[in-house]
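Design a sequence for this backbone.
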C-alpha cells in the first residue's frame, strides 16, 4: 500500500468507528439499562465486536504509516 492508500484506509476506519459508537449508544438508549433480552445483548455485542476489530485495524494502519514515514 502507498502512504495515500494507508491514509485513506485510516480515514475510512475512523468513520466506521465513529458510526459504530453512535449505533451502540443508540442501541443502549433504545433498550435501556438493566436486564435486556438476549437479542438486545447480542445486537450490542455484535456492534461492539465490529468496533473493536475496526480499532485494531486502524491501529495496524497507523503503525504501517508510522513505519513508512520513519523510513523516509
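Sequence:
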Amino acid at each position: 500500500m502507498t502512504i495515500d492508500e494507508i491514509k485513506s484506509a485510516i480515514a475510512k476506519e475512523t468513520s466506521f468507528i465513529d458510526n459504530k459508537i453512535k449505533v451502540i449508544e443508540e442501541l443502549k438508549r433504545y433498550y435501556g439499562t438493566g436486564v435486556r433480552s438476549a437479542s438486545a445483548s447480542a445486537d450490542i455485542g455484535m456492534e461492539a465486536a465490529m468496533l473493536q476489530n475496526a480499532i485494531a485495524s486502524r491501529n495496524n494502519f497507523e503503525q504501517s504509516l508510522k513505519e513508512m514515514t520513519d523510513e523516509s
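The radius of gyration is 16 Å.
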